């Protein structure tokens, strides 16, 4: 049994939920998000609580049960408070600036890297910390991974782009024989 799927989702006051067959429509103050379940789970909305139920007893149905509950909960959290990821840029001469809808990164290459900021996402830079904010958890994580991929942290000096809570295991480097 899914421990995640069993839990009901309590819907806060600022979010409206409509269940239309296998589709759930979440409406917040500014955004409207939809989640299509393709009839893989049962959906019930009663007394500001959204609950999910199994449609079968096989392992695939149990996986969908927990997955759709987690996706729905992420949409509710995104519409109320949003998600954010922080990246840290380490290295001499490495820097980031936001120019309009473009994040410009100087990461030791012969040219700057320009990353176009998608709609619905806000990126801010404070010294060497890049903060990515938005309402879609998957999109925020994907953007953070793409920016990190431009220059992942290297194990000798720790230079590169890393998540703020990421720990880099350092290597000793070469030693000379005497």
Mind sketching the topology for me?
Blueprint: H1 3-6, E1 9-10, E2 16-20, E3 23-27, E4 32-36, E5 41-46, E6 49-54, H2 59-80, E7 83-90, E8 95-99, E9 102-106, E10 113-116, E11 121-126, E12 129-134, H3 137-150, E13 160-163
Antiparallel strand pairs: 1-6, 2-3, 3-4, 5-6, 7-12, 7-13, 8-9, 9-10, 11-12
What does this structure look like?
The protein is an alpha+beta fold. Helices cover 22% and strands 38% of the residues. The chain is built from three helices and 13 strands; from the N terminus they run H-E-E-E-E-E-E-H-E-E-E-E-E-E-H-E. The chain has helices at 3-6, 59-80, 137-150; strands spanning 9-10, 16-20, 23-27, 32-36, 41-46, 49-54, 83-90, 95-99, 102-106, 113-116, 121-126, 129-134, 160-163. The strands form four sheets. A four-stranded antiparallel sheet has the order 11-12-7-13, covered by helices on one side. A hairpin with a 4-residue loop joins strand 3 (23-27) and strand 4 (32-36). The longest helix has 22 residues, at 59-80. The radius of gyration is 21 Å and the shape is elongated.
């Amino acid at each position: 049994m899914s421990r995640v799927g069993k839990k009901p989702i309590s819907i806060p006051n600022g979010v409206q939920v409509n269940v239309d067959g296998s589709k759930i429509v979440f409406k917040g103050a500014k955004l409207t998000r939809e989640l299509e379940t393709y009839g893989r789970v049962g959906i019930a909305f009663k007394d500001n609580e959204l609950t999910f139920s199994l449609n079968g007893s096989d392992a695939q149905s149990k996986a969908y049960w927990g997955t759709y509950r987690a996706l729905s909960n992420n949409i509710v959290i995104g519409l109320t408070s949003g998600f954010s990821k922080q990246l840290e840029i380490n290295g001499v001469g490495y820097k980031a600036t936001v120019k309009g809808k473009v994040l410009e990164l100087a990461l030791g290459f012969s040219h700057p890297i320009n990353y176009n900021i998608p709609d619905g996402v806000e990126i801010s830079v404070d010294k060497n910390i890049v903060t990515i904010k938005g309402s879609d958890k998957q999109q925020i994580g994907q953007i953070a991974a793409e920016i990190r991929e431009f220059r992942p942290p290297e194990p000798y000096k720790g230079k590169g782009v890393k998540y703020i809570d990421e720990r880099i295991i350092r290597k000793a480097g070469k030693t000379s024989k005497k």
